[in-house]
From TrEMBL:
It comes from Candidatus Mediterraneibacter stercoravium. It is an enzyme of class 3 (hydrolase). This is Undecaprenyl-diphosphatase. The keyword Glycoprotein does not apply. GO terms for cellular component: plasma membrane. The chain crosses the membrane at residues 46-64, 85-103, 115-133, 145-165, 193-213, 219-242, 254-274. Catalyzes the dephosphorylation of undecaprenyl diphosphate (UPP). Confers resistance to bacitracin. Belongs to the UppP family. Its EC number is 3.6.1.27. One of its GO terms (biological process) is response to antibiotic.
Length: 275
C-alpha cells in the first residue's frame, strides 16, 4: 500500500515537470531520495521512463484533432498541412535519434549524476532569463506551425538532443532553441509537445524491450497506476502552461530552475560530506 501512494506522488511529479520547462529529472532524483520504491533497480529504471507514456497520451488527447490527418472535419488542405506537421516532427526528431540510440548508455553512465543535473538546471534557467530579456521588445518571427522551416526544425531538434544530458529538461531545451530562433512562446511550446511523442515513446519502447514483460502483478499495477496519474496531471499541466504563456514569459521558470539547481547541489553535496 505504501508503494501505491509513492507511485501516485511520482506520477503527479512526472505529469507536472515533464511539460513545464523545469526538468523532470531534477525533481525525480530528489524524490527518489525521499521516497524509495520497494522494487528492484531494473524495474525502477524502467518505471521512471515508462510512466512518461501517460504524459505522451495527454498530448495526443488534447491535440488529437490537430494531429489527426484523417479527421473528416478537416478539408483536404488541412489534412495535407497535418501530414506536413508530422513530417516536421519526424525531421525534428532525427538529431536525438541519431545521437540518442548509439550514445544513450554512454551519456547515462558519464552524466547521470546529481551535480550534472544541478549544473544544467542552473545553466538553462539563466538561458531562459537572458533570452526572454533579449526578446522582450521583439515581435516573434514565427507565429504559426506552418512557418517553421526545415533549418529551424533541425536546430530545434539539436536542442532536443542536448536534453539527453540529465537536468536539461527536454521541453526546456527545445523551447530555448525555438525562442532563440524567434518562434512565439505558444508555437515553441506546442512544437515541443509534438516532438515529445516520438522521443518519449521511443525511450519507453527501448526500456520495455530491455526489461521485457516479466512483471509481477504488483509491478504491472504500479506501472499502470503511475502512467494513469501522469496522464491526468499532464492534461492539467499542459493546459495551464498554454494559458500561462499567453500573458507571461518563461522567466519564472528560469528562476525556479536556478533555485532548484542550488537545492539539488546542496542536498547531494551535504549528503556526500556527511557520508
Amino acid at each position: 500500500m505504501l508503494d501505491v501512494l509513492k507511485v501516485i506522488i511520482f506520477g503527479i511529479v512526472e505529469g507536472i515537470t515533464e511539460w513545464l520547462p523545469i526538468s523532470s529529472t531534477g525533481h525525480l532524483i530528489l524524490l527518489e531520495e525521499l521516497l524509495k520504491l520497494n522494487q528492484n533497480q531494473e524495474f525502477l529504471d524502467m518505471f521512471y521512463v515508462v510512466i512518461q507514456l501517460g504524459a505522451i497520451l495527454a498530448v495526443v488527447v488534447i491535440y488529437f484533432h490537430k494531429l489527426n490527418p484523417f479527421s473528416p472535419k478537416k478539408t483536404q488542405k488541412q489534412k495535407m498541412m497535418t501530414v506536413q506537421l508530422w513530417i516536421k516532427v519526424v525531421i525534428g526528431s532525427i538529431p536525438a535519434a541519431v545521437i540518442g540510440i548509439p550514445f544513450n548508455d554512454f551519456i547515462e553512465e558519464k552524466f547521470n549524476n546529481a551535480y550534472v543535473v544541478a549544473a544544467m538546471l542552473v545553466v538553462y534557467g539563466i538561458l531562459f532569463i537572458v533570452i526572454e530579456n533579449y526578446q522582450k521588445d521583439k515581435e516573434p518571427k514565427v507565429t504559426k506551425l506552418s512557418q517553421l522551416t526545415i533549418p529551424m526544425i533541425l536546430i530545434i531538434g539539436v536542442f532536443q538532443m542536448l536534453a539527453m544530458i540529465p537536468g536539461t529538461s527536454r521541453s526546456g531545451a527545445t523551447i530555448v532553441g525555438a525562442l532563440l530562433l524567434g518562434v512565439s512562446r505558444a508555437i515553441a511550446a506546442e512544437f515541443t509537445f509534438f516532438l515529445a511523442i516520438p522521443a518519449m515513446a521511443g525511450a519507453s519502447a527501448v526500456k520495455l524491450i530491455h526489461f521485457g514483460f516479466n512483471f509481477t502483478a504488483m509491478q504491472a499495477f504500479l506501472l499502470l497506476l503511475g502512467t494513469a496519474v501522469s496522464f491526468a496531471v499532464s492534461i492539467v499541466a499542459i493546459k495551464f502552461l498554454m494559458r500561462y504563456i499567453k500573458k507571461n514569459d518563461f522567466k519564472v521558470f528560469g528562476w525556479y530552475r536556478i533555485a532548484l539547481g542550488i537545492i539539488v547541489f546542496l542536498f547531494f553535496g551535504i549528503q556526500a560530506i556527511l557520508s
